[in-house]
Amino acid sequence: MFAEIITIGDEILIGQVVDTNAAFIAAELNKIGFSIYQISSVQDEKEHILNILGAAQKRAELVIITGGLGPTKDDITKEVLSEFVEDQLVSNSEVEENIKRLFKEFNLNLPLPANLRQAMVPSKATILMNKNGTAPGMWMEKDGVVFIALPGVPYEMKHLLTEEVIPRVAEKFTRPYIYHSTLVTYGLGESAVAERIKEFEENLAKHVKLAYLPSLGKVRLRLSSVGADKESVTAEVDAAMKKLQGLLSDIVVGLEEESSIIERIGKILKSQKMFLSTAESCTGGKIAAEITKFPGASSTFKGGITAYETSLKTKLLGLPKKLIDTYNVVSLEVAEAMAVRSCRVFDSDFAVATTGIAGPDKGEGDDEVGTVCIAVATPKGVVSEKFHFGKGRDRVIEKSVNKAFEMLLKEILKI
Amino acid sequence: MFAEIITIGDEILIGQVVDTNAAFIAAELNKIGFSIYQISSVQDEKEHILNILGAAQKRAELVIITGGLGPTKDDITKEVLSEFVEDQLVSNSEVEENIKRLFKEFNLNLPLPANLRQAMVPSKATILMNKNGTAPGMWMEKDGVVFIALPGVPYEMKHLLTEEVIPRVAEKFTRPYIYHSTLVTYGLGESAVAERIKEFEENLAKHVKLAYLPSLGKVRLRLSSVGADKESVTAEVDAAMKKLQGLLSDIVVGLEEESSIIERIGKILKSQKMFLSTAESCTGGKIAAEITKFPGASSTFKGGITAYETSLKTKLLGLPKKLIDTYNVVSLEVAEAMAVRSCRVFDSDFAVATTGIAGPDKGEGDDEVGTVCIAVATPKGVVSEKFHFGKGRDRVIEKSVNKAFEMLLKEILKI
Question: Across the A/B interface, how many CB contacts are shorter than 8 Å?
Fold first, then answer.
């Protein structure tokens, strides 16, 4: 059961925006049993869009198209799709009402002619009403293949996909069951992990696929299988995963599906009625921002201080100036003091602190770019570690954030 | 002059990772005159990779492939490419040396056989040495079309692309000049902007393309042209852009190429030797994290406080409890007090503060999810505004962050 995704827009082809829509759609379709054969991004250009639609039709039973449905002249997806399915654009009164309602809701002037043109849709298309925007979703069919066009604005696309597209697609198609389970490991390289589980990999059932997903400081291992029967597919992958976890128990963080490391930390803290705070230097607030991305963060996260300037570590966290002068601002001692004092200032049980040199400049001290000290204060004491994360500002920050959560989880699990 | 980008990996097709590599490669190739005809993502599957390579060969003169070069069994790109260009894999001693060097540098044990297999490359390929990883880049040719394979790890890919690929490609191909200029506007919808510049759009030279890029709270307008002569292409687009800026002067933030809004704020503050700080509630540290993404942030950013729990606004920022009780924690009064006190605590000239309800739960007060108050304290006083950003936690946070920088820039420009 194959699907394809086509994302349309010059902005993708010139690299001005990253195509995040495709990954979201792929994940949602995968959940209901579709394998994505290909994702293609093409320009706002008629011949090219027609070509890719024709190619996708030959390979897939379902084609999801996003982008190019806006009110302005550069958006041509609707016209081209209408031509492709040999249909004509007609005005749809329900879509027009929706556009007028949206303009009223947002206290805008009356819709412009360009907005009302968005109510023009292929006559045979089933309309998927877009509550959050003026461009409607459209369901069309050609020679048994389903083509669904969605707006490119991620928020609008996501709502339409999950609320309108997925239920309808699930009803129309008889689908197999696809199951993935991903294990997150920290601290060992891809090939070293592969060496450790060589025998396991060789003895893995043929229809269970193992994939390695290395990224900064962690390797994720994904087991996947597909089959008609949900129970047997799930049971087989879960049994293999259990074996894998046993083989790698010393470097395992947990299963990715269960929760991200941050959600896992949040869940444990909440169950223990314990609180967290931060004191960040080189990570500049990113640890706090990652924590507060999650709904319900307020029930475990007290807050944080970004003490970017060295003197502020003294002023806000009450670090003795002598400590900084003696040990250097990038030191285990300073990181530990930051963490401990963050607990005190925020009245929290755990605190994570970072101090380091994200680069590209070396900063005040003698340390190389990429040197980062991370500390975690706990009700039992404080632990810290010094890292050399190499060059690349973004990379140093990201590695530091990942490592901070890893160290934090380790300590929290000791409660 | 067309190029194509092929990204390989099941993780992309199941939506487990967002393909950020394609956008980076597209932008870099575009800068040197290549139009990207298509971006395709395909699975780690031999027939499929062979098909897409064949299709790309017919459409483009340059094909960049990323992913599938790892040391583990699920990575097959190298074998398939070698078959495609009718070559054979041979061991390359320079690549082997590089692998051994990397293992030494990172204090790892000796390379495993799996790592040394990464030194196997197509015999006719030109090697692009990967200083940052064990998978080499490879330059191959078939019937006049250049195929370049790069590792999928973004950091390694980026270095190889900018340091090895771009200079070689630039030398090999005679390329036209492509020029984009993008204007960032805030506060008006896509179709309202289109209506304002209708005449301008109609009179635009045919070879200059105008594109609208709407996103949360802002619309970007891109003018693009391509031609043999750099000077005339640039002059024509710049002249049109100047007109466009004039037509939209009241909603213009600036040109995107110049710098992001954060870089622009940083530049002005630095030139004035002035400093910035934050006091965040609902944005949870994201404003600080966005500021510190940029190298040199330390020369203008003092730091910030994330006071997530209400009581901490009193404790850390010294906000009178009475103020919060009287006006409600999500109020202009509290936002203003947070900003003013952030200036005091951090000894900064400007401070931006947020307080609001990111959702999905309503929180302590009476306000709806999506209600956010933002304040900017300046040497001259403090300004604030209340917003209703709708639902969706991520969306509320992102809109708040964007709006905060917009308000901050507006005030900074008044200095």
Answer: 323
Number of domains chain B is built from: 3
Residue B259 pLDDT: 63
Same structural domain, A276 and A208: no
* Contact of B72 with B82, CB cutoff 8 Å: no
DSSP character at residue A16: S
pLDDT at A258: 57
The three-state secondary structure class of A147 is: strand
Query: Which of chain B's residues have a Cβ under 8 Å away from the Cβ of A26?
Result: 12-15
CB contact under 8 A, A286 and B287: no
Is it the case that residue B43 has pLDDT exceeding 60?
yes
* CATH code at position B27: 3.40.980.10
CA distances from A189 to A248, B8, B115, B119 (A): 12, 21, 11, 17
Say what the pLDDT of residue A362 is: 75
pLDDT computed for residue B351 by the predictor = 97
pTM check: above 0.90? no
CB A207 within 8 A of CB A225: yes
Closest CA to B223 of B249, B239, A153: B239
Residue carrying the six token digits 């461009």: A135
Q: Are the CB atoms for A235 and A205 separated by under 8 Å?
A: no
Q: Which residues of B touch A30 (CB under 8 A)?
A: 14-15
Element (H, E) at A249: none
- Residue A36 to residue B15, Cβ atoms within 8 A: yes
> Which residues in chain B (340-399) have CB-CB distances under 8 A to chain A?
345-346, 358-361, 363, 392-395, 397
The CATH number for B369's domain is 3.90.950.20
* Residues A38 and A138 grouped into a single domain: yes
Distances B311 to A392, B250, B280 between C-alpha atoms, Å: 38, 40, 14
- Summarised one tens digit per residue, pLDDT across range B324-349 is 999 889 999 999 999 999 999 999 99
Residues A233, A160 share a domain = no
Residues A94 and A207 both lie in one domain: no
Buried b (16+ CB within 10 A) or exposed e, A281-306: bbbbbbbbbbbbbbeebbebbbbbbb
Query: Is it true that the peptide bond before B176 is cis, omega within 30 degrees of 0?
Result: no
pLDDT at B107: 64
Q: Measuring CA to CA, which residue among A38, A58, A49 is closest to residue A145?
A: A58
Tokens for B411, please give them: 């005030």
Look at residues A345, A346, A399 and name the one whose alpha carbon lies nearest to residue A374: A399
Give strand pairing partners of A3.
A36, A62
Residue B202: domain span: 177-255
CA B109/CA B96 separation, integer angstroms: 15
Burial of A110 (0-12, 13-18, 19+ CB in 10 A): exposed
The mean of the pLDDT values for chain B is 91
Tokens linked to B42:
């395909």
| A251 touching B (Cβ < 8 Å) | no
**Predicted confidence (pLDDT) per residue in A224-270, tens digit:** 999 988 899 999 999 999 999 999 988 888 887 656 789 889 989 99
> Could you give the ipTM of this predicted complex?
0.72
What sign does the CA torsion over B319, B321, B327, B331 have?
positive
pLDDT digits (tens, 9 = 90+) for B357-384: 998 887 666 788 899 999 999 999 999 9
